[in-house]
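hiii so um. not sure if this is the right channel but i have a protein structure encoded as tokens and i wanna go backwards to a sequence. like what aa goes where. can anyone help
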């Protein structure tokens, strides 16, 4: 087995040496058209020039460099160049709240700040009065008063460059920040060695992803999740296709023909919703045929998962059903081997529906405080509803109260610039994840809810919101579902409605009755004390920009409850006055 270098910079240079002309990054020009390819040797040469320019601007080893760019090759050029110059990368999300951005800048004190447009740089300058050098990436912008244009730095061709800085394995490579879903984001510093350990652990799980594979870079690079996936591609010699506009992703996938695809639960929920909506628009005979084919596919896939033989009629019709469903599968291209979902749980019914269609979605699990993903399902070893078996290097333990603990080389050692020991680390070096979980007899991990999210009603019943929300999101016109009810008599549900739900354009008596019936049906399998006692419905979606979702599209529950506070109070008041057969429904903006 080949021994790989233990710094990100050395791995880039090794890839450039081995596959100089092979495509590394592919992107489409803003005007559209054919995909443009950048080879590994060109990437490495660009990184070296940019690292030299960063050093000339005053970046010294250990200095922080903050990057707030869209998902594009320039992000990766700046990322690798900062590391090659000995810098520490801090990703900034343009959609993050001003308070979070100000906190991150104040804590990390970057030497250089890179933003897409001049107004982005002005925004960051207004949030933090530090003496950072500004770099603007937009080709049409003017150079900032104290800084440069990225295009000028990329175009530089110095006749001689000094010997580049050589990062060491224990040098800090990046500072990432927790999502801030329950408070102010906290910084976590990770070394080159820790990040390469994470990359190697993922590569070991998927031996079929190798040189020439196609991956899609579309998630925000401010988050370490997508950066690690790009480093997996670097280590494998895979081609990374950059899609900077998420709303163009589905349109681009047939052109990209990915070998694997990695997304977050929200993407898969919307993808399924879109497919179902499109099928329902077809003429009735075609709709019946497609739905029947999908049902046969689900029955066949269920038999495969259970290790049994499908009924004879299913085996007989399955080749025909696959042929009928092929047009839907081509949405993700003809060469897709599997998909991966991370950052939050996907409901098993959705995994089963995709499997019946012919797409295998494998769930993984990790948290910000451990750079090595903790568990993952594999192509030849998966269970829907489980998040799989531990990755190499992770030692898992279940505490007496059911909380998951983990120890390993990827676990952080404390929050950035916080002198007090982290409360989540115990004396044995185990990280308390904050997740309730169980390990089955085969070593698979099953998550059972966040400790911080589970609440008690005033009657003393413990309620986990995720199963309620998962059930409610099966309703085709529900965009988001949020269950609340801490210290209240019963839980209530906040539902944001899909913008395409034209049949609910007016919340009249008929629409209210339909929503109440659909909610009752969706929650029928839950314990009675978890059934929502009232509903709040809104047509305005939850968003990252309004602080209701994290960059990974997780719920920021406190902010959501704040937005709907008046409706929550009214819902509990109305439910006390309503007849027991009536489910109060409050409409809010």
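sure thing!! here u go:
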């Amino acid at each position: 087995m080949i021994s790989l270098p233990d710094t990100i910079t050395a791995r880039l240079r090794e890839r450039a040496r081995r596959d100089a002309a092979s495509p590394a990054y592919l992107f489409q020009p803003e005007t559209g058209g054919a995909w443009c390819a950048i080879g590994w040797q060109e990437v490495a040469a660009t990184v070296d020039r940019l690292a030299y320019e960063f050093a000339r601007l005053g970046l010294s080893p250990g200095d922080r460099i903050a990057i707030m760019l869209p998902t594009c090759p320039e992000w990766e050029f700046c990322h690798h160049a900062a590391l090659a110059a000995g810098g520490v990368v801090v990703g900034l999300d343009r959609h993050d709240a001003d308070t979070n951005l100000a906190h991150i800048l104040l804590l990390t004190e970057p030497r250089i700040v890179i933003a897409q447009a001049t107004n982005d740089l002005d925004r960051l300058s207004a949030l933090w009065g530090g003496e950072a050098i500004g770099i603007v990436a937009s080709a049409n912008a003017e150079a900032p008063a104290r800084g440069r244009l990225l295009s000028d730095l990329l175009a530089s061709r110095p006749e001689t460059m000094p010997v580049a800085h050589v990062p060491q394995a224990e040098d800090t490579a990046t500072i990432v920040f927790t999502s801030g879903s329950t408070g102010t984001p906290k910084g976590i510093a990770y070394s080159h060695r820790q990040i390469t350990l994470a990359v190697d652990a993922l590569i070991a799980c998927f031996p079929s992803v190798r040189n020439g594979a196609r991956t899609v870079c579309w998630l925000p690079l401010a988050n370490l999740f997508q950066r690690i996936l790009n480093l997996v591609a670097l280590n494998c010699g895979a081609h990374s296709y950059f899609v900077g506009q998420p709303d163009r992703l589905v349109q681009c996938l047939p052109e990209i023909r990915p070998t694997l695809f990695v997304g977050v639960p929200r993407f898969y929920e919307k993808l399924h919703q879109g497919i179902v909506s499109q099928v329902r628009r077809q003429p009735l005979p075609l709709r019946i045929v497609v739905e029947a084919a999908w049902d046969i596919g689900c029955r066949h896939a269920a038999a495969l998962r259970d290790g049994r033989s499908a009924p004879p009629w299913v085996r007989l019709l399955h080749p025909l059903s696959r042929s009928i469903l092929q047009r839907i599968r081509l949405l993700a291209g003809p060469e897709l081997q599997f998909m991966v979902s991370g950052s939050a749980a996907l409901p098993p019914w959705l995994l089963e529906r995709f499997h019946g269609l012919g797409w295998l979605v494998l769930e993984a699990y990790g948290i910000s405080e451990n750079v090595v993903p903790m568990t993952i399902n594999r192509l030849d070893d998966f269970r829907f509803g489980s998040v799989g078996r531990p990755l190499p290097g992770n030692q898992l333990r279940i505490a007496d109260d059911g909380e998951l603990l983990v120890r390993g080389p990827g676990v952080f050692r404390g929050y950035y610039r916080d002198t007090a020991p982290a409360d989540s680390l115990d004396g044995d070096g185990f990280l308390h994840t904050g997740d309730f979980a169980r390990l089955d007899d085969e070593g698979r991990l099953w998550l059972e809810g966040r400790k911080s999210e589970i609440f008690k009603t005033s009657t003393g019943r413990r309620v986990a919101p995720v199963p309620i929300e998962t059930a409610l999101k099966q309703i085709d016109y529900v965009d988001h579902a949020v269950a609340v009810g801490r210290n209240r008599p019963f839980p209530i549900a906040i539902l944001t409605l899909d913008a395409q739900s034209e049949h609910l354009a007016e919340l009249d008596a008929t629409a209210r009755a339909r929503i109440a019936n659909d909610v009752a049906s969706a929650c029928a399998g839950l314990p009675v004390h978890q059934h929502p006692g009232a509903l709040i419905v809104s047509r305005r979606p939850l968003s990252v920009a309004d602080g209701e979702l994290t960059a990974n599209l997780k719920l920021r529950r406190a902010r959501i409850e704040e937005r709907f506070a008046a409706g929550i109070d009214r819902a509990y008041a109305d439910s006390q006055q309503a007849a027991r057969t009536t489910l109060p429904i409050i409409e809010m903006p």
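oh and The first helix runs from residue 8 to 18.
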